[in-house]
Design brief:
single chain; mainly alpha; 3% strand
Length: 118
């Protein structure tokens, strides 16, 4: 009986390996995207924990999503090969993530509003 349960556990763990590998690839891809854009994923997560608790009016959030999702990422010409950061025009990984995650959306909207001049 112990052999059968051990074999069953090994079989269950083996079936989780492709799922874990896929999740790891997705996480690494996201970290690379944030790094290339010059963002720090840990700082963004901390900001989302602070600003993401607030609620944003539904119509404002909808119009914000519409405005930022319509922009396309266009890689601007690189003037030097010395830098790993590429200048891009359009929504970056933070804004694209905010379209799917309400906590990030609240963070991006509030920080965007803080940058407005009166």
């Amino acid at each position: 009986m112990p052999f059968q349960s051990q074999f069953s556990l090994q079989l269950e763990l083996a079936s989780l390996m492709p799922v874990a590998a896929s999740a790891t690839k997705d996480l690494l891809r996201m970290v690379r995207e944030f790094s290339k854009s010059g963002s720090d994923i840990i700082v963004e997560e901390d900001l989302a924990n602070i600003f993401g608790r607030n609620r944003i009016e539904r119509s404002f959030a909808s119009s914000f999503k519409t405005d930022v999702s319509g922009s396309a990422i266009v890689e601007l010409p690189r003037y030097t090969e010395a830098f790993d950061i590429i200048l891009q025009q359009g929504a970056g990984p933070t804004v694209l993530r905010s379209i799917k995650d309400l906590g990030y959306l609240a963070t991006v909207i509030q920080i965007s509003l803080l940058t407005l001049h009166t």
